[in-house]
Amino acid sequence: MIVYDKGELENLILVEEAHSLKVGGFIDNEQYNAISRQLATPKNSNNLLIRLAFFILGSFLYSSICGFLTLLSEDLITENFKVIVFLYTTIGFAGAEVLSRLKLYGHGLDDAFIVGSQLTLAIAVGILTDGNEMVIASIITITGLISYLRYLHLSMALLFCLALTATVIYAMFEIGTFGKTILPFVMMLFAVVIYFSSKTVVSKITNPFYYKGISLANSFSLILFYLSGNYLVVRELSVVLLGTEIAPDSDIPFAFFFYGFTFVAPLFYLVYSILKKDRIMFWIGFLTLSFSIYTIHFYYPILSIEIILTIGGVLLFVLTYLAIKKLKDKETGITFKPDRFSKTNTFLDAEILISSQLGLKPETSTGSNIEFDGGEFSGGGSSGKF
């Protein structure tokens, strides 16, 4: 199913591990370069700016090919415009296949054709079905999954998650008002299914190439679970989908549940991530907690934003200080020791920056009270006598 040579993909994983070892200080730059030269890997762009530049170049190439074919078939477009859009889709898939066989993996050029093929396919299906959202989402779900399984691009894994979620949402819309009413609970259940399914697949997977995509689906389920029960999201979507006006003294059904969920879910993420040492879940918990505070402030602006930011900064400083005092002497588990697999000179750089801005200079010795004798030879203070 994978279009790339699996041996080269394994070599790419080894090169990435070697880079982590170089960052951690276990090997030097020379050893890393020797490893990367000896292992044959697909052509990829680690620099995001270079990859973005190639993506723009690939987009121009894709659009130029489509434009050239449009000029050739100008007389047929008026009657067969639906066919020409499917032709654009075919060009995208063909270009992605050719570039992948040329060993371009995450290079930028292949990204343009892979993403462009999915976009033109969605447009073509929309034109053919008169904008049937459920059909579009269902087809993009299938093609997104196939594209990820074949090309291993994380953008396709994300597209699969979004399209599958959209398919479930539009399926609930087909039920009618009842489906829209229970939509938050269905989406929470759907997110739980994705989370545990991804956990099960990760524990049983034998092919390491799909690990990143499954991890992305796992993180996506955490975000989806929180947003499905967030009070602001549920209330605003209730107004849009159900067309109901909420009076000033009234509230949405199960309002207390959604109020509690808005804060309980982020706190659970934070506690559980610390216990399981899950860094991604910790950051998701921190971000969702921030959005929960914004949710309450959106409806109940008790304090001004300046005061809230000040109080939040003080609390963050206090919590950080207490955490550092608690963890600074720990050697195992959750510690304050620098991570060897990340840049460890952050605090040193900060100290240098602050010192330079404040005009501070390191202390130097102006003199010494120790008197040396002799020193006629290179003895540094010893004479020629015993």
TrEMBL record:
Spans through the membrane: 48-71, 83-100, 158-176, 182-202, 214-234, 254-275, 280-299, 305-324
Location of the region described as Disordered in the Swiss-Prot/TrEMBL record: 365-386
Keywords from the UniProt entry: Membrane, Transmembrane, Transmembrane helix
Top-rank taxon, per record: Bacteria
Biased composition (Gly residues): 376-386
Coiled coil regions in record: none
Protein name: DUF4401 domain-containing protein
Organism: Flavobacterium hiemivividum
Organism taxonomic ancestry: Bacteria, Pseudomonadati, Bacteroidota, Flavobacteriia, Flavobacteriales
